[in-house]
User: What shape does this take?
Amino acid sequence: MGNEGSRSETTGDPLAAAAAAAAAAAVENDLRVGWRRAGSGDGTIGARDGHCAVTATGGKVFVFGGVVENSALGPSESNDLFLFCPETESWNVVEATGDIPPPRSSAAMAAVGCKLFLFGGLSQGTGWMNSVFMFDTERNTWKELNVSGTCPSPRDKMTATAVGCRIYVFGGFGPVSASEEGNDSDGEEGAEEDSEEDATDAGDLEDAQKAAKFGWFDDLFVFDTVTMSWSHPMQLNKSGPTRRAAHTTCAVSDKLVIFGGRDPIARRNDLHVFNIESRKWVTDLPLTGIPPAPRSFHAACVVGHRIVIFGGRGIDNEHFNDIHVLDTETWQWMKPAVDGEPPTPRGLSTASVVGDQVLIFGGSSDFASDTMQCLTYFAETYILKVDDLLREKPVTAVGGVGSDSRVQQITGEGDVLRTPSDQSAAS
Assistant: This one.
């Protein structure tokens, strides 16, 4: 018997009927994953959340920045860089030189060949950023890039996804300029009329952001790593996601797959697919199975033709430690059976693929509504086997959720990480 395979007959009880409907929609499968905690190195890298993690050429997994737990000073933003060693299953500090990026959290980073590209993020000292830094993994050097074209406005909690030599940046949360005030901003009245892009230095940018409104974004920008230029291509239909932050975006072939996150209304569990070649949002996905509960700050990675979703923060600020798998050939959601000792529930962790393993690192939990911060940070690295996530083949379910729609939305981000109170609406 596969997972998610139970069926029940109920009458009269609405809760039982709902449970039966969910069981009927589930996709039976034989996926079974085993959690294992990596051997050592937790103390070296330090407990943190809001960091970036990417896999570069040669299977090198890097972690940059985030908010680090510090018992003496309290949580603080970081700009350190670590490299995972598969042999010892530990993280080692990278001694980098050059234009070291300022400390930040909730930035976005993507790898193109042996280069890492870092965009945006949030600093408690200077506010939101939209600069681009490049790290050469062969020379261990950082360089702040002099870019051209139409650049995204300063923001955090966006995604950056590499396809070939281009990086696609979607969504996020940050100061909203006068021309963007339709973004359901929830900040102070009397926003600056000038865009933050007009600020000439960090001080001007910080002053402009203090007076700005804040909101979510639904724009899609493209950074060309050959010409070092930004573009803002027109989307040729209007069926895309709502403005949102703290979502995930994964590249599968010529498609960007966006899941969940928080928009101006709530945390979501909808799925959207953008075709890079046609520049259109796909509107006829034959989705089946039960999607993850609405969430933001979850982690995601691509394993073959499947997308793996882990953890995140739910509608009531609860945290998850569940795994969901989306098969992008059948567009089926599956929930594997779990062996071993899984990570405790958390959000703001990262998922990376190295060789035949998936690494889940860091994160935080125990959200305190009075401070809008999490109280517990994690430094552990957990490992899943890629083969377990690619086991074939799911059994087609009797019923399906949203089988005739591009979106499964059962509802119910930007999180506040040591930020001004105006940003709390994005949590």
About this structure: The chain has a mean pLDDT of 83. The CA atoms of residues 235 and 279 lie 5 Å apart.
